[in-house]
Amino acid sequence: MRRLTHALRRHKAIYLLLLPGMLYFLLFHYLPLAGVSIAFMDYSPFLGLSGSSWIGLDNFAKLFDDPEFASTVRNTLVISFLQIAFAFPAPILLALLLNSLLSGRVKRMVQTVVYLPHFLSWVIVIAVWQQVLGGAGALADLFQQLGLGSVNVMANAETFKILLTAQVIWKDVGWGTIIFFAAIASIPTQLYESAAVDGAGPLRRTWHITLPGILPVIVLLLILKLGDVLSVGFEQILLQQPSVGAEAAQVLDTFVYFRGVLGGDWGIGAAAGLLKGVIGTLMIVAANRMARRAGSEGLF
Amino acid sequence: MTSSHRPAWVEPPNRVVTALKGMVIGLILLIMIYPLAYVILNSFASPEATTTAGLIPSEWSFSAYTTIFKGGIVQRSLIVSIAITLVGTALSLAVTATLAYALTKTRQIPGVRAALYLVLLTMLFSAGIIPNYLVVKAFGLLDSYWALIIPVLASAFNVVVMRNFFMQLPRELFEAARMDGAGELSIFVKIVLPLSKAVLAVIGLFYAVAYWNSFFNAMLYLNDASKWPIQLVLNSYVLQGASMSSMNNTEMYNLPSSQSVQMAVVVLATVPILIVYPFLQKYFTKGVLTGAIKG
After folding, report:
1. A138 vs B: CB within 8 A
2. Domain A53-293 -> CATH class
3. Which value does ipTM take for this structure?
4. In Å, how far is B251's CA from the nearest CA of chain A?
5. Distance, in angstroms, between A81 CA and closest chain B CA?
6. I want to staple B81 with a disulfide (CB 3.0 to 4.6 A). Which of B109, B137, B229, B290 is the partner?
């Protein structure tokens, strides 16, 4: 105790600088963990945390009996799978393509264009897509002029998951290339030179030098992505759910919001959120361990 | 051209391959640029002009913008967003910089290492939407502008990036100042901050973009439509247009629902990002990679 007061007095300035930031992290990242307990409660906002009664695992039991929850998990996994299959490799391919360009000027110009959408909000991105592909958009006009009838890509429940993947690629393919460019830049040029002297053409050099060179980064990112399968673009989906319906567009995060916050089923929403959070954290830790075992440095 | 430099060992470009690459790149550029150009240019179409898939409207006019700036909810939401972005960025930078600097003292000062771990750990979990909502409610922040700032005041990632930067500053400068009798606070304000303008600028830009773009927190915490920031107004006006008649109690719905006005709202929400983008681009590659290095 005396040592503590001594340290506090001696390093007052540093503790003072530490205070606001730590207060923020404790109040807005650690304190909410207490609210997780309502997953085990028959929570009512009027009674509050202290007044609501404990009901054990009832909320989880109800959750697993709920047919909507099953379809929610299915939607989440399907969307995640599509993104790993298509949105994940897209920046690798783009980085390889741009890397193969001889003109630095063209490369920089393309980079300037493809990085931009990353900084636009999902509301803006979807509004822009709406104007181009929606029922009153450019594509619909074109179809009408050509006499092909009406088209509204943005409100088609059947192709919605593909649309989501396309939007993710449009927004983040450029941003995703940055880390691969860094990996490519760290490959020694002599490797390419000697391969070329030995008669390997551009394609074979890409296959035998560039790809193996960036493989550790690819593996690391892929494993992290696998650790994150339960999180799919929350805002992106929330914004578009009204136009395609909940059946095609309910994912775990939107389920928590609609059921819990809007629907007033606080306990069930919190149970779904807790399940997602715990599995997500376990998977990130497991993914990191796998990444280390695969020879990469891992994140932590 | 000076910028194309081909090492001696690289074979001369093959015409077919070059043409193919050119086509692919042209297609990518078209897909990225066309939607943005279409919306920006057609926001200047007169309300009577028929929309087509073409980029150039048949009749130019500023009427969409004059309608918006006559007043009403779009104009007000822009002011709200600008204020949130300015105040939020300033507070976020202050909290991030002070915390990051204090966290460089893990060796010298008891408790700092534990604080660092507490901050790092928050990258691994999130309590979730409902627990966060309950905390914001408990602090009485619902329907307050502060609900858009305080719950997202600092990100552990940005704290780590800034701490890494501070750790690289030359130690001798601090020692010299200490010899001259400067306290930790004046070292932080007079030596550390002036040497860290670049990292403060980058992280400030990232916070500013996040505040400007913030959407869900506003939706969750603000019921009162007159307090909505631009992203939320954009959502109800452009995306959920169908349900507008049911909410005709706010001024926003006096706006004519012409396509050019919708596009103008999109453009107004995008312009600030376009303005800071050149600065962002100059710095972010560096920022992203520093962050990827372990803290």
Report:
1. yes
2. mainly alpha
3. 0.88
4. 21
5. 22
6. B229
